[in-house]
């Protein structure tokens, strides 16, 4: 049973269609990451769920409450949805202390002072900031301010927490640490959450399930590892990590094996067919060496290094195989531009994509 159920969500701004019949399910306690390029509709989706935006059509259920059902004329106002929201600009108030920042929403709700104090203390303890309650945001680091914002969204005990790029203002190191901490914390609390990002590493680390959006539609859904290793679309394959897209001219099936035909009559064996001509293979799935290995049965291509990119922990090579350019990831050995190489494309890693 889903805790959050969004069905057929549609939204237009003027003539621009931003959401095209989006369906999304989130289980209780699950963290779902909405990932996609800028402008694909991530924030709009969150705002519709929070009630800050009115969809043109669709239905949104959270827990056992119908928050929005356009056809039935139901639209619960945002303050009655018990949904927490955390934004990219952490929006902590500079003139209020940490305590007052977290207390703000509870005061608006009209809670009594003793209840407010107890809930603020609990929220600050949860994020490890109780000792800084009397400080002002300008005296806190970026990561600490981020945690104030988190404490504020957790203080009211939201049934669902929506987070919109909550870490994107932080530098890379802090961001890497915070996303691990954030995930651990949400899991400890059993908090159901939707986490929006355009950063694939954020999404891969944070999410139980990853929903990849493109132009107002869902392109891929699944566990991060499955979506990464077995993308169904060229978009998914390219957006998550890097990929090589191969467009075959035709497919051949000799009964036992399936081949894709490249220009000049070259054939590449593939393990499965989905009826299309387009396949993807990731750079790290292509084996590379100076000589062919005996276990490389099918799909051995000769080429030479066209470009080499050194990233510190890993190197990438663009290899020219008779006009077919393939991006490969370096393994133990370093190569230089012009070096002759042999590549092996394991049929199992040639993924049919739409
Ligand atoms: N209030 C609005 N009025 C008009 N157009 C809007 C409005 N809000 C969003 N849009 C448009 O809707 C599209 C989707 O916007 P949205 O903010 O949902 O994208 P996003 O996926 O969150 O992108 P980003 O990663 O850049 O935050 C964009 O083209 C945007 O310009
Ligand atoms: Mg956005």
Lateral arrangement of strands in the main beta sheet: 7-8-9-3-10-11
- The CATH class designation of the largest domain is Alpha Beta
Assembly form of the protein: single chain
First CA to last CA: what distance? 30 Å
Assign the structural class, choosing from mainly alpha, mainly beta, alpha/beta, alpha+beta, or little secondary structure: alpha+beta
| Computed Rg | 25 Å
Q: Ligands bound here?
A: adenosine-5'-triphosphate, magnesium ion
Q: Which fold name corresponds to the CATH topology of the largest domain?
A: Rossmann fold
CATH architecture of the largest domain: 3-Layer(aba) Sandwich
The helix content, as a percent range, equals 10-25%
Output the number of helix runs. Answer: 8
Reported for the largest beta sheet, the result is:
6 strands, mixed
Task: Estimate nothing, just give the exact number of structural domains.
Answer: 2
- Tell me the total number of β-strands: 22
The overall average pLDDT, rounded, is: 92
Strand content: 25-35%
Q: Give unreliable regions as ranges.
A: none
Query: How would you sum up the global shape?
Result: elongated
């Amino acid at each position: 049973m889903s805790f959050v159920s969004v069905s057929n969500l549609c939204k237009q701004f003027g003539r621009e269609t931003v959401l095209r019949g989006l369906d999304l399910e989130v289980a209780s306690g699950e963290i779902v990451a909405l990932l996609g390029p800028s402008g694909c509709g991530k924030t709009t989706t969150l705002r519709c769920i929070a009630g800050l935006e009115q969809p043109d059509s669709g239905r949104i259920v959270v827990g056992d409450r119908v928050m929005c059902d356009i056809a039935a004329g139901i639209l619960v106002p945002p303050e009655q949805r018990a949904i927490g929201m955390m934004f990219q600009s952490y929006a902590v108030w500079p003139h209020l202390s940490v305590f007052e920042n977290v207390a703000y929403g509870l005061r608006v709700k009209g809670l009594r002072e003793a209840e407010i104090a107890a809930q603020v203390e609990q929220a600050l303890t949860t994020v490890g900031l109780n000792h800084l309650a009397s400080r002002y945001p300008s005296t806190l680091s970026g990561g600490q301010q981020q945690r104030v914002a988190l404490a504020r969204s957790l203080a009211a005990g939201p049934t669902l927490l929506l987070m919109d790029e909550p870490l994107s203002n932080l530098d890379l190191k802090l961001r890497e640490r915070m996303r691990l901490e954030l995930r651990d914390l949400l899991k400890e609390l059993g908090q159901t959450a939707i986490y929006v990002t355009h950063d694939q590493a954020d999404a891969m680390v944070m999410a139980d399930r990853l929903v990849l959006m493109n132009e107002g539609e869902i392109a891929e859904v699944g566990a991060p590892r499955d979506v990464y290793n077995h993308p169904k679309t060229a978009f998914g394959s390219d957006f998550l990590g890097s990929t090589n897209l191969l467009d075959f001219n035709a497919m051949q099936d000799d009964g036992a094996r399936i081949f894709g035909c490249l220009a000049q009559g070259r054939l590449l064996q593939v393990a499965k067919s989905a009826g299309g001509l387009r396949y993807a293979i990731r750079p790290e799935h292509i084996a590379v060496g100076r000589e062919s290995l005996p276990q490389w049965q099918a799909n051995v291509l000769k080429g030479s290094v066209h470009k080499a990119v050194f990233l510190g922990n890993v190197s990438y090579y663009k290899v020219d195989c008779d006009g077919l350019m393939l991006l490969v990831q370096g393994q133990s050995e370093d190569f230089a531009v012009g070096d002759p190489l042999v590549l092996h494309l394991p049929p199992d890693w040639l993924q049919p994509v739409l």
